[in-house]
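Obj.: predict assembly geometry.
Materials: sequence records (below).
Method: joint structure prediction, all chains together.
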Amino acid sequence: MEYKPLSGREFPRFSAIKTFFRLPYVAIDADYEVGIFGIPFDGGVSYRPGARFAPAKVREVSSLGRGFHMTRQENFFEKLKVADIGDCPTVPIDMAQTYERIEKFVGEVLSHNKRFLSVGGDHSTTLPVLRALRKKYGKPLAFIHFDAHLDTYPAAWGQEYHHGAFARHAVEEGLVDPKKMVQIGIRGPLAGGDDLDFVRKHGIRVITVDDVRDVPLNDFLKTLPTFDETPTYISYDIDNLDPSCAPGTGTPVPGGLTTYEVQRIFRALKIPHLVGGDVVEISPPFDQSDITALAGLDALFEMLHLFKTK
Amino acid sequence: MEYKPLSGREFPRFSAIKTFFRLPYVAIDADYEVGIFGIPFDGGVSYRPGARFAPAKVREVSSLGRGFHMTRQENFFEKLKVADIGDCPTVPIDMAQTYERIEKFVGEVLSHNKRFLSVGGDHSTTLPVLRALRKKYGKPLAFIHFDAHLDTYPAAWGQEYHHGAFARHAVEEGLVDPKKMVQIGIRGPLAGGDDLDFVRKHGIRVITVDDVRDVPLNDFLKTLPTFDETPTYISYDIDNLDPSCAPGTGTPVPGGLTTYEVQRIFRALKIPHLVGGDVVEISPPFDQSDITALAGLDALFEMLHLFKTK
Amino acid sequence: MEYKPLSGREFPRFSAIKTFFRLPYVAIDADYEVGIFGIPFDGGVSYRPGARFAPAKVREVSSLGRGFHMTRQENFFEKLKVADIGDCPTVPIDMAQTYERIEKFVGEVLSHNKRFLSVGGDHSTTLPVLRALRKKYGKPLAFIHFDAHLDTYPAAWGQEYHHGAFARHAVEEGLVDPKKMVQIGIRGPLAGGDDLDFVRKHGIRVITVDDVRDVPLNDFLKTLPTFDETPTYISYDIDNLDPSCAPGTGTPVPGGLTTYEVQRIFRALKIPHLVGGDVVEISPPFDQSDITALAGLDALFEMLHLFKTK
Amino acid sequence: MEYKPLSGREFPRFSAIKTFFRLPYVAIDADYEVGIFGIPFDGGVSYRPGARFAPAKVREVSSLGRGFHMTRQENFFEKLKVADIGDCPTVPIDMAQTYERIEKFVGEVLSHNKRFLSVGGDHSTTLPVLRALRKKYGKPLAFIHFDAHLDTYPAAWGQEYHHGAFARHAVEEGLVDPKKMVQIGIRGPLAGGDDLDFVRKHGIRVITVDDVRDVPLNDFLKTLPTFDETPTYISYDIDNLDPSCAPGTGTPVPGGLTTYEVQRIFRALKIPHLVGGDVVEISPPFDQSDITALAGLDALFEMLHLFKTK
Amino acid sequence: MEYKPLSGREFPRFSAIKTFFRLPYVAIDADYEVGIFGIPFDGGVSYRPGARFAPAKVREVSSLGRGFHMTRQENFFEKLKVADIGDCPTVPIDMAQTYERIEKFVGEVLSHNKRFLSVGGDHSTTLPVLRALRKKYGKPLAFIHFDAHLDTYPAAWGQEYHHGAFARHAVEEGLVDPKKMVQIGIRGPLAGGDDLDFVRKHGIRVITVDDVRDVPLNDFLKTLPTFDETPTYISYDIDNLDPSCAPGTGTPVPGGLTTYEVQRIFRALKIPHLVGGDVVEISPPFDQSDITALAGLDALFEMLHLFKTK
Amino acid sequence: MEYKPLSGREFPRFSAIKTFFRLPYVAIDADYEVGIFGIPFDGGVSYRPGARFAPAKVREVSSLGRGFHMTRQENFFEKLKVADIGDCPTVPIDMAQTYERIEKFVGEVLSHNKRFLSVGGDHSTTLPVLRALRKKYGKPLAFIHFDAHLDTYPAAWGQEYHHGAFARHAVEEGLVDPKKMVQIGIRGPLAGGDDLDFVRKHGIRVITVDDVRDVPLNDFLKTLPTFDETPTYISYDIDNLDPSCAPGTGTPVPGGLTTYEVQRIFRALKIPHLVGGDVVEISPPFDQSDITALAGLDALFEMLHLFKTK
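Observations (raw structure tokens):
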């Protein structure tokens, strides 16, 4: 099995069955090294749903993807075997059961010693992914979290688990190490002043949009945290971006990052041991000309390059 | 308190706080006779979500509504006191708890001896409404069900309750009387041949689009069932309409009814004892120029005229 | 000067400067016989504006127009000299002055003994057109009025003139003869029961959608009124059509006519002396895939064939 | 290999890799009986392009498809082995080479003695399909052609081959038998009176929209032509439908058929020897809420049932 | 009466009657301190209309608003009593009368010694607001004006008052003090070189986009003018933003500010005596995914924090 | 003949026949100095088509254009005679013949010693324009190329000529001088590492987005290349912009330039001998609220000011 994207110069990019980056669609236990899969679920969202359609849409726009990273001067698809391994089973109308299925699916991916990227889904789907990783690696992960929101919020409508609470649970359940956790793109308004209590108490580093822009970008990039050999996970909520770059998302917040700033942040991150990542909260029904999906694809592409060859 | 729509000739229709038909927004125990409320919930939907935004959108387009029914030659708002009583509480991410809140809310409306119309929400929300009505009236209801789908389907993804199974549960729980039940607008394809077993077994009358169109419309209207003094409920799934008339819905099916046919059906129905009704499955994110919402509003307006003055 | 549409088989339909039907754009006093012009004004509209963009949009979609009428078996552009004579001057923010400019412009067209079609604009623009025609012809016109609404409504917000009152003024000012007037496509709801007083009092014939559909279409067509040598004008409000056919309009009403029914009505009308006509209330910002504009273009095309060669 | 659609009750319809009807994606020489493939090409279109995206979009919406035909009371997927065999290779910017590749691809499908349905693509793509069929079957085909346009038009811009000329070439090249050919949905306007010369000369039966509607639908259906054992092909141009049903197409024409009428026509056709068919001219960039794609899917589903078990 | 936004953690943000920030809707003479109201009028606009729908749309998206300002570390809604006081009466088709009604309405708000924010409406609506303020405070106001355009333009189409002339009239009528006036976001092209004569002659400070970006943002912010105890008004035309951030506006101009820059400007302004402000020129029919409305809401939120507690 | 834009203060901007900048539409041999024309062709595009509609759309939005350049403090339309000279003939379905017609049309423009700007069309249309210029001027041109892509790519689908290869052909055919060529806005990803071989080999200067942003903008502008008296051409592919600024294009790439940066680059360029330019790859069917078309218009306006008075 050759793990190469279908060439756009041979097969027009609008043709063919849609898989992530036009890569082969293989079984979960095939001999790929990095698997990309979808988690089509938006049952944890508080405002605009639609993220259930994101895996299909990102597959579609990934037809536009190319393989050679101009800054890194390398073709990742020639370095590691990457494949589309389909969609994780979900129950569209039940979060608890969806959580079980996600944890099981990711557990199986990990049981084959694979690394992975997923396309959500709303942000509530990240929690069971982290649970599976925690089990696999036996200790809390280092965690890079792009978002407009802290996602450390309390229960809503009497429900503990929703897309604005996953990060709190991840810390409270010991899935991630708050000392090795950074949140990027955060901005207000918040629901209340106590929204920041959690991150302060746990010592989580919060990088706001102001932090990114108060100095020239190249200077800011030097202040990014460094990571050690701790297994590290990246969760990329598309709403870290400004609504002009990512209109198609569940809870957009003006004053966000640009796709360019995010590209530069990804390129500046040094992560010795990335084990997985996700792109979440793309809502195609609210997107325009697929620019949000394209921004998500771009993040996926950048993240891919953070995986090390073994 | 005067229960009159705000006049469009005094206050432009695009202005003012949006309530159903520009009626007063009053408390659940005020002295209105027919209450209109929203049930913003789409957690039971199998394909396109978005119905959570329907109550807000129907309120908005109802600014275009007028009060005098040209065929009936009467202004319903001068006959009965109609009011907007707000939205039923829901839990966007939990169906079981939402069911409880709906049943409780409708129960409270009924405890004040009110009749009502609601704007869903996906079709799963009709079940708890029927449960509350069953309790109130102490016997199964007569039931008029507009839909492209039978909604008598089995569990999906291991879940008993979803927007395609509410009618089955309504029958099985004894909430409605299958002998006094009619389904209008039904058409294929179906998932399987056994999809019809349920309606056959229970003797539910199914009126397909073919049935409506095989004879001139006026002739068809004469074949509509008659209703007796049994408390009667109407559930109007917007997808009974053709996608050209109602693109903004969760699971559109080509070959459906037109808004005109539906108007004529509503005007031909004789219902001595209507106790409530709903319009469900309008999904504004998938609508175009609000025509689906307008079609839903029109059904709401027609249904209103089926309530008797006491 | 040759009055022929630019051929789509020579010049692709998406190319070239946009004029109505790709006809020559000529001066108001050129030697054409039927002039088509725009009246870009929507200052009289009560709900959705945007008709100001209709002349430009109808010009654009008229690139798709073809010249040979399949039912009539004739090419109108070979029978009469038709031309685009540009847009009537308007004052976007002042109705009274716009009325003056419209009346003056139409007066000038008529002073050259031309017949014409115009593309509005909201329906308030028809009144000054009728005033100019009344002056020219010295007597009230016969009047065919396609619309969902009667447009005989009273003042709104203290204003006499608005898009829902033009027909009342036309009658009251003696511009049209109510005995030779027919309104087609009318349907409810109305604001009040007295909305019908005006048409009853003046004996205006109202053809509702029910009237059109209560018998087979071919039978209905035989009941259309006949017209005599009285100068006759047609005003075609696109909202006579159902929202599925014409979503892009100011005040859509479900349950309307189809484009097919309207084609058949136009083909059945016998008008010995048509002097002008208009298509109004197309609002491109609310249109979808230009289908409303295309429906308006189609009406324009049908109307054109009602002009007699002299 | 089991040729069964993925169940929507097990795997949510918005999940999984998108294939036609969620069927298996297999090689061209696998043991399926009816293959469905895409022809993503819009290089022959005269106005709105975009049909290149139709195969991907129809695959996506076919997730909504169900298998049991309510009128026919059968599940076609249980009768014949149907599969997605991917997309035919095309050259997006060269029609001549695309023609070669289409003819070769279809030839290969036929060499394995398969029957097939394809999703275009603009209507120019039907010609090479017919060429391959003519070669295979050694004689002209019977031909059912749904369209607003005759597609028998002369060269445009000096080019013989374009999406409005394929039917003329099919007749002139002897690919189809004009005596066994019917065109359904035709309506004007035409470019010129001589547009009808070709069909008259060749005795092709033209069924206009008027023909369909001049009598009750059930009566019309009895007048449909019958077909003999001649290998028969169906080409379904989505623009036979009214723009309200199919806004997303290259050259929409008001006054078209409804999806319901088309369903009934398909169900009334008796075709002893259907060898293939296509759905063409769906342009997703101009579609609204995917209703055009859904209408195309519906036609695909109906056509499928016209294949006989051997 | 408690002036607190409805909590999104109790009542889902997509539910409930839509008021600004989910605040109580109260009478004009209630005991609130800052009233927010709509001015739904777009009769003064020169290109794209639609701002009449802005108050309703901003109310809708304000459901997404939260209350705690992350930079200021305060919850404004806990400091001052803020309420929705409905919409100012307007006459959609008459500017002069609308001016009277606006001036009267604002006069009444001021008669109760309230401060306020309004959501227009096109920019022509700011003039009568300033007239009412001038009367109340007895002297010209200090004036902060965000805009792409100077709005000091001469009459158009013979009309003195339109959305591009309000600032000129405000100066000429002595409503604002040009020496205490600043225009932010200005950029070309202009209609003519003399467009700048007015601001030069009156010594109005004009801050162009170049001015904002020629130095690092933090440095620019230090150059903002300071304000004294003069009653100060802010008029925020959404088209000061770049079309990527605010596509839904009447006359967009490329090369504009970003929402982030505007946030920083608002946070840097020191205004001892803010008496009112507005957000104008949001045109929902031209918006995409509500990002323009969200940007307007964000400006509203920032402006709110500039009101002092007394 | 007066070459002045129609005034927006006399004739509302939404009215009148649409020409570029509301300039007169004149014959190719009239006495204008700079001609603007359309090249409606998208037959060379690899992904999203639609650029065939760009000339019509840019004409439409150019109604919003104004004439006085605020930074340059001059009204170009008063300095040089600018006119709309219509659209170049194209063959929508044949690239080779379209190339011939473009070269012939541009040749004729040049034969009258005119300078020009064109609105494409996809980027494949620039090649025949350069061929005509090369013939006219007898030597390779200096060439400024804005783009996300290098467009020096090899054949695709066996075809030499497509929208991603024009720059390679321009160099290989000696139409432009690679030493006097600069590409601005370039960014990855690329198809392969060898994509850069061509520009390296020919010594073409490539300015990436990183290059533009690694220093303050004013510093970057000083590093722009200078041009000598060599006839110079500018080709502006709208996809050099970020998708947030230009969603409506054929192959969008995140991380692009902003309209503001491009304005500043245009204003900083010193070009003694500009002979022509184009704006290409605007695809209106994929645009949102016309912001891409507006960005293209803005580039057209800036380019116009680079023409010298003779």
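Conclusions so far: The longest strand of chain C covers residues 176-186.
To do: check interface contacts against the pulldown list.
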